[in-house]
Amino acid sequence: MEEIDMKLRADGVQKKVISPGKGELSTFPNGTKVKFHYRTSLCDGTVLDDSRTMGGQSKPMELILGKKFKLPVWEQVVTTMREGEVAEFTCDVKHTALYPLVSLSLRNISLGKDPLEGQRHCCGIAQVHSHHSMGHPDLDKLQANPQPLVFTLEMLEILPPGSFQMEIWAMTDEEKLEVIPQIHEEGNALFKSGDISAASEKYYSAIACLKNLQMKERPGDDHWIKLDLMITPLLLNYCQCKHLLGQYYEVLDHCSSIINKYNDNVKAYFKRGKAHAMVWNEAQARADFAKVIELDPSLETSVAKELRVMEDRIRDKQKEEKGRYKNLFNYSSKASATASTG
User: Fold this and answer.
1) Which domain-ending residue is among 133, 159, 185?
2) What CATH code is carried by the domain that includes residue 252?
3) Which DSSP letter does residue 296 get?
4) What is its EC number (predicted)?
5) Cβ atoms 259, 268 nearer than 8 A
6) Model confidence, pTM
7) Considering just the CA atoms, what is the radius of gyration of the chain in Å?
8) How many domains in the chain?
């Protein structure tokens, strides 16, 4: 361990063991999966990120060694740890310059967002030196003024290659494209079983993966279009889940994005029409349903059914409001009578 510590110090990393682990130190061949909790702090003790509380949940970090993670120093330091060990690593700025980007991705993931949301399509070094806001004041400050950071890690599990199923984020681009149809089918199976939330997460995972691949292509190129045609049915399934979960405005946003690219997509118009109906946008709903019939006259019966449902809801709402105003008027009349006899 002394030799390992000397190598770390020579490379600008100081290690302090807080709690020793158990067993022998692994050899950590490429493909090893490590799970650990992390807390990232400035040298003055200010905490930037904590995997135990990020996004209101406790979710450990998972790394597969040899996959060229954006923060190479994490791959370096975890290979000095045993299972159960807690250690503090103070790392020079040469190791931490890209941390704002890594942190942004981790924060997005913890909130269920696209990991690359808020990042520009350029290389990491260019991003670090740009003046583009990351949407988090602490990360903006760190981006403008890179400094040493302290990583407190707790090693939870070390899994040798072949002992676990590879997760999609750790796959090569080719492996991701191969597994997308499987994830799509898993989402469909969950939907059919009635687990709408889990199905939604499956579809979202596949969509985020394909969008990340799409970012590497020039918009409009053949491969970009091929990826977009894979995204569209997944996004429509995702919208179906969101509609059933009552998240109608998200359905409106996603369906509109599809229609802006493919203005003959009947399913997008139909789902957007239903979402408009649910948020009382009667005129927009009727326009979308009319477009559905124009594109596919065989759906006239389905559209008529949706229009009846919308009209019934509108009538019920009008009756409810009429009753409310009537009661309000009666209350006002009684209050006036009471005041005049008082």
Assistant:
1) 159
2) 1.25.40.10
3) -
4) 5.2.1.8
5) yes
6) 0.56
7) 27
8) 2
Does 191 share its domain with 99? no
CA dist., res. 209 & res. 227, Å (int): 10
Residues 308 and 266 in one domain: yes
Please report the DSSP string for 101-131 in residue order: HHHHHHHHHHTTS-TTTT--SS-HHHHHTS-
Domain assignment present for 212: yes
130 and 186 assigned to the same domain: no
CATH number for position 73: 3.10.50.40
- Looking at the fold, whether 139 and 285 belong to one and the same domain comes out as no
Q: What is the pLDDT of residues 284-337, one digit of tens each?
A: 999 999 999 999 999 999 999 999 999 999 999 988 888 776 666 555 555 554
Q: Is the same domain home to 114 and 187?
A: no
In a domain, 181, yes or no: yes
Distances (CA, A) of 167 to 37, 162, 197, 339: 18, 12, 20, 72
Residue 200, helix vs strand vs coil: helix
Tens of pLDDT, residues 137-159:
999 999 999 999 999 999 999 99
Whether 77 contacts 13, CB under 8 Å: yes
Same domain, 182 and 137: no
3-class SS letters over 279-292: CCCHHHHHHHHHHH
Taking 70 as the pLDDT cut, the residues of the chain under it are 1, 113-132, 165-167, 169-170, 325-342
CA distance 268 to 106: 31
> What pLDDT, on a 0 to 100 scale, did the predictor assign at position 308?
97
Phi first, then psi, for residue 24 (nearest 5°) are: -80, 155
Of the candidates 287, 276, 265, the one whose C-alpha atom is nearest the C-alpha of residue 309 is 276
**Closest by alpha carbon to 267, among 249, 287, 244, 291?**
291
The answer to whether residue 337 is domain-embedded is: no
Taking the CA atoms of residue 106, residue 110, residue 113 and residue 114 in that order, the dihedral angle to the nearest 10 degrees is 30
Q: Which residues make beta-bridge pairs with 155?
A: 36
pLDDT, position 114: 58
Domain ranges, residue 221 = 168-317
E strand spans, the chain? 13-19, 33-42, 47-50, 61-64, 86-91, 149-159
Residue at 43: amino acid letter: C
